[in-house]
Each structure stands twice: as structure tokens, then as C-alpha cells.
Amino acid sequence: MPASTVVGIDGSAHAWRALDWAADYADRHRLPLLLVHGSRALLDEGTIPPDALRRLTAERQDLLAEARQYVLKVRPEIDVETRLVPADPARALVEESEHADLVAVGSRGQGGFEGLLFGSVGLHVAAHARCPALVVPRPAPYPPGASTDIVIGIEGMDDERTSIEWAFREAASRGARIVALHAVGGEFSPRRRVIEDLELSESLAGYQERYPEVAVDQLVSDRTAARALVEASESAGLVVVGARRRRSPLPGMALGRVNHTVLHHTRCPVVIVPGSG
Fold this sequence. Notes:
The protein is an alpha/beta fold. The protein has 2 domains: 4-136, Rossmann fold (3-Layer(aba) Sandwich), CATH 3.40.50; 150-274, Rossmann fold (3-Layer(aba) Sandwich), CATH 3.40.50. Helix content is 41%, strand content 22%. The chain has helices at residues 13-29, 50-74, 89-97, 118-128, 161-174, 190-204, 207-210, 225-232, 256-265; strands at 4-8, 33-38, 80-85, 100-106, 133-136, 149-153, 177-183, 216-221, 238-245, 253-254, 270-274. Helix 2 (50-74) links the parallel strand 2 and strand 3 (80-85).
């Protein structure tokens, strides 16, 4: 069975927007879609009466069923499954990411059953997912209305190969253009610009040959990386950034200041791609 596209469903408007993007991704890549709702309130710990627990479970199942019917109405060709998990929603999504091709969450959600707040569930998933994590912010358009530009932040590190490959593969599936963005964080001389342009070209070497249908623009910016990526998100359809795996015993990604800033201020969806190291 192919890996699935996983999306967190919590009843908020932001989760529904994430569902639109996850369904679009699953459709283009011909993957099944798994709708997940996790809640500690569903744990049978004897803290609530059995009848109340049954009503609560039925309520959450109805939420997932409604989301499934919505997807099948607009994209009937997708194989859509639902999963109700009696666990913390962040933990449930991270566990599902073990066998997923992509996991999607909405950000800055208000309300809903668990209030899918970016600072809690969304950030935890972005930092701990075992596959690329798609974070869809409040201002993001619906997929059909999004820009065809995919911006990828490039520092020139060896462990960026995974995120660059992911961005090119996604651009090929969308018919999108790649904007390869390298920020140097200050003014630079004409000589340094030539050097930075050459280094950016080296980072992209080989990808244009493997994906000849993907147009590529290279951009060297004097902005800081965080500011350059946030500004680029104003006109982009997607921002792609890599995340290094922690070298400490703690599991997950070391998102860093740049990724945190982008996740909190982006105007379009962001994909965090775990490094291969």
C-alpha cells in the first residue's frame, strides 16, 4: 500500500484549509488520504461517565465523516480513510507520519475541539514529523487560487539535498516554477554577488537536468534568511525549507530561528522537509 497523505482534523476553519491542501497533494500524487482526529478526551480513564464518552466519540466520528464526505464530493477519485485516536493530537499525527508521504496541519487555529493552535500541535508536528510537514496558515488561499511559484530557501549545506529534491518533484507535479532563494543577510559587493550566484548554482546542479520541465529562477538577497523567505511568501504558492535532525538524544528536528520565524509569519503554506542526516 502506498504511503498516505495525513491531515489533522479538529473542527477549526484552519484544519479545513489544511484539508484542502492535503487533498490537492494526494490527488496530484495519487496517494490515499488519511484524516486523523486525536483527543485525550477520548481516553477511557474513568473520568467521565460511559454514556458521555460514547456521545463524545460519536461526535468526533461525525466530524471525521463530514470531512471525508467533503473531500469525496470535490475529489471523488481519492481513497479517503478516517482515524479516531484516543491520544494527544500532536502525538497522533507524529505517529501517523511514520508511514506517510506528507502530514498537513492548519496553523493559528482558534476554537474547534482541541483548538489546533500553531504554537502547540502545529509546531510539535513540524518539529517531530518523520516525513515532510505541510503547515497551512490563516492567509493561505485555496489551492486553485495559489501562485505557481515554489520558493525554496537554500543555505548551501550538504543536507539540503532532500528539501531541494522534494521542491523540484513538487514543482514538476504542479507545473510550477522554482524560486531558489539564498539570503546573505547584508549588503555585498559585485564580486561577492558573483561568488554567491555561483555557489547557488552549485547547490542546484543536476536538478534541472532531472526536471527539465521545471523553470528555475535564482535569487540572492541581501535580507536575512527569515525576512527574505517571509517576504517571498507574499507572492509564492509554497515555501519549502529544510530542517536538520538533532544530534542530541532528543528526537525530532532542530527547526532553528529561521524556520520558526517563517512558520509564524508566512503568508502561504510552508513545507518543512526533514534532512537525510
